[in-house]
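Example record used in the benchmark description.
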Amino acid sequence: RVHGGTSLQMAVPLKLVAFSGSLRASSVNSGIVRFLAANAPADKGVSVEQLSIEHLPLFNDDLLNDDNTVPESVASLHRAIAEADGVIIASPEHNYSMSAATKNALDWLSRPAAGMAKHPMFNKPVYLVGAGGRMGTVRAQAHIRGVCVFLNAHVMPGSETCINEFAPGASGPIFNEAGDLVDQPTKELILSHLDKFVAYASIFKGRA
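Model output (structure tokens):
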């Protein structure tokens, strides 16, 4: 694997989860999630599990029962987030904001499921990353940050990963036609930010 930075040497074992806010088969944001899952530093006790939000129903309070039971696809997402030490969100930018799929997932995650005292995003460290047009996903990430304020989730400061997917890479395109990340400098950038997120998430471990 490619690895940049040294902060992982001081990090504690962490279970991270990641989801893409794009449902497109060849999504570059899903490619980023695949890359992170495949390159998590397992030798340091860090894992990144790729989650899917593809089968979540549109958020609807009528689907919430009196005991807070939710559809199984939602409950599965809730459990995975609740058990994680940190959350990575790779969202595209649609119309100057986050994708509808990203917002739908966050809306479901704003509700506590059965047996939970609080919703699963409460006090979770979050790393935002995304690939899009000329400005990357800077506007989408700003809106996600606002939602995370309401959720009392803590977005890692100082390491915005906004990738212009159409810019030329060091030796060709940044992503291939399948949406896989292939540009070496971009890989190193994302992994350096993963380093920082591991250190950041370690601060919160055991405080939930």
